[in-house]
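Bench log, entry 3. Co-assembly request; chain sequences pasted below exactly as received.
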Amino acid sequence: MPAVAPSEFPPPFDSADAIGPPTDPAEERIEVGVAIVGGGPAGLACANRLMQLLEDEPELTEKLGEVPVAVIEKGKVPGAHLLSGANVDPSALERLFPDLPPAEWPPVYQEVTKDATYFLTPGKAFPLKPPPPNFRKEGTYTLSVSKLGRFLAEKAEEAGVYILSETAATKLLVEDRIVRGVRSGDRGRGKDGEELGNFEPGSDVIAKATVLAEGTIGHLTYAAYDHFDLHGSDPQAWELGVKEIWEVPKPLDRVIHTLGWPLRWGPKYKEAGGSFIYPMGEDKVCFGLVVGLDTTDATFSVHDALQQFKTHPFVKKIIEGGKRVGWGAKTIPSGGYWALPKRFSVPGMLIAGDAAGMVNIAELAGVHYAMHAGMHAAEAIVESLKNDVDSVNFESYDAAIRDSEIEKDLYRSRNMKQPLTKGLIFGGMMGSAMVATKGAFPGGHWKVEDNADVPVEIGRAAEKYPQPDNELTFNKLDSVFLSGNATRDDAPNHVRIQTRVPREVAQTWVSMCPAQVYEIPEEQLENGAAEVDVHVTASNCVQCGAITAKGGRLTLPEGGDGPLYQET
Amino acid sequence: MAGILVYALHDDEGDFNKNSLGAISAAAKLAAEVGGEAAAVVVGEVGDEACAALGNYGAAKVYRAKSVPEGLAQPIVDAMAKVIDEEGFSYALFGGGLLGFEIGAGLTARLGAGVTMEVTEVKVRDGKLVAERPILQDSQIADVGYVSEPGIIIGRLNAFDIEESGGSAEVVDVEVELSPWSTKASMVQRGEQRGADVNIEDAEILVGGGRGLGAAEGFELCEELAGAMGGAVAATRAVVDAGWYPYAAQIGQTGKTVAPKLYLAAGVSGAIQHKVGMQSSENILAINKDPNAPIFEFSDLGVVGDLHKIVPKLTEAIKAKKGE
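Structure output for the full assembly:
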């Protein structure tokens, strides 16, 4: 079997199409003070912080107009598209609402008091003692980010923020290399882009400052990277996490991370990753498997590997007698320090959170960085507009990020993930040495490889996946249903790929996608053709973003489409 | 009086809608339990006999508003609001269907009433009606009671079964003055829905075709079988998406919800997105070559085999039995 890199088959997509000047006549444009794209931890922390600061700045508030702060969110509600572990460092919660102790935040389940890390073999679990320092989670708080989105949106609305849900920001409005706002997407188009009876055109939203807080795989963010030449020294890379929530008869008393099985540890597979198992109060647990998207076996599927993971006696014991109540999938930027953009602001615009790759993958941390970044952005915007409401210079934000823990932490762990793709034993030793020396050993710059440049070939990963029994293990479509996704079938396809590709590339997409968006026609599967067609069922998409990592391009669906996560 | 008022929809030929008749039957049964009467509202020029015949389904009275046009929501809201107001009904019950949804919603707004949509069952608790409504993608059932009168209950399609009891209803003509806004829209044309010859929601026998048919031509097998059994043909999302069959026939989460007496699934894998649209069928028979297909987990009878061989034989056998 030949090995072929998906990047040889680039998607029919030009990021320049996502950038342009305003087109609506002046009187039809929607004017806001600050436009925030994305109602996640970064965007909503920014919105809340802005309102706090504006309370002391009546003059500036007046100048920002009728809508001082607007959050544009493509999900049905803020939180609908959010998914994370998550154990969250409380520093951002404490900074945003100092009067509300972290334990009392509604999205928080509990403080982490015990943690453990295990190495799994097919039938056994060996505790790692002491646990690797990067997995020490004591003092963090377990929370649900989809609940966090809802809570922060509620707080923001109380403070006077306009939340525009079910609205996709499809175009970055740029004039003379200054960002002027965003254009919202059309609604009510049919499969071939035709206008249906309920068609509503998008609008130009003009803002004094635009904050891109789009999260992982930012549609406008990456277009802006191209347009403003912001790409970091290495390409961004991603891991894909698939997560389930279970109601269980007995509570879990600790946070668990596992390494090893069902991932294969030979360097040729590049199956770098692991699992997390977190308690969610008295009656629920969540767990997930997170694996780098540079795997080489085209049949490798994180969703199915997670199903396999549940059949391990160690895991089975935790969820025994329980019931699956939630499922979801999301990519996580894992390029770390080397993939950070050159700048975090350009005239008129700031980038915050996962969109800017502010994730410390070695420590599985990102939510608090996103919130801190959002707050820094708010502070820089108010600082700048206070002196001159037409100022488009937000460079003080860059300085704040460079001085913050975000950049320091990412620098410390800058090389920790890369060695893991060279196999667990070498990678694990190297990673531990780096953690122990706070990144000083061996130092230097370990290159991050573009996920789509890694050649893929048909392997044997799929042979081990269990047949779904609908009690412990489930297929992809059942899972998509549980995500709350009920996207209409005649929505335009928002996934850009080449639809005639070598079997290896097609199989990679089929297996990788946790939502069964890609399919190879049955007769081509059977006749062994070297080149096959890829059929795309875009309405299944839960917008995890993996296709962008693996050689295609996820664009924005119609606002409101996609999953409706409740507690992920 | 804890009476229940039902809207009885009819077509241009004067035939009453199956869902309306089911709602009347359900109302009659519930009214008996709470010590009241079920009545129906009929609009347009419907004959005495046809109105009185609603008694066969349990209506004690039929209020007929001859001057009110059929098919548009607001004029019918005028009629129902007047009857509820003057006769003091405690509940209004609607069978499924878009017009019922719209009238029910309009009536709710007009009367400042409480409403429950997508109701699958109504029961009596402490002398009051409680509506059951599936929530969270049908994974849970919510019981909804009413704190004020009237309570508006809008059923899901096929939620209420027709029961014939014999009997005849008293027909009362009512004069309704239409609100100014009710005459702003007029009916241009009433017709069957989007390209379908048969309304699959009303069919008692459905043959559902899935990807296992192999190609668009496979639907000919389904059509022949449905023809022989006197049923209609339905389809899964995947085959509609592939252009093998029209959207009007799509069953499931993003299509229609059906509950026929017999659902024969040919080459349907039974993904949950399809299941939620047909799981309340009385009998489910599945033919699939994959013994692990999820459909076998919720079918009453499963046949593992090649539908291209089985379906034609089945068609032949049914024709032979019917002596055709």
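Chain A is about 25% helix and 25% strand. Chain A has one domain: 29-479.
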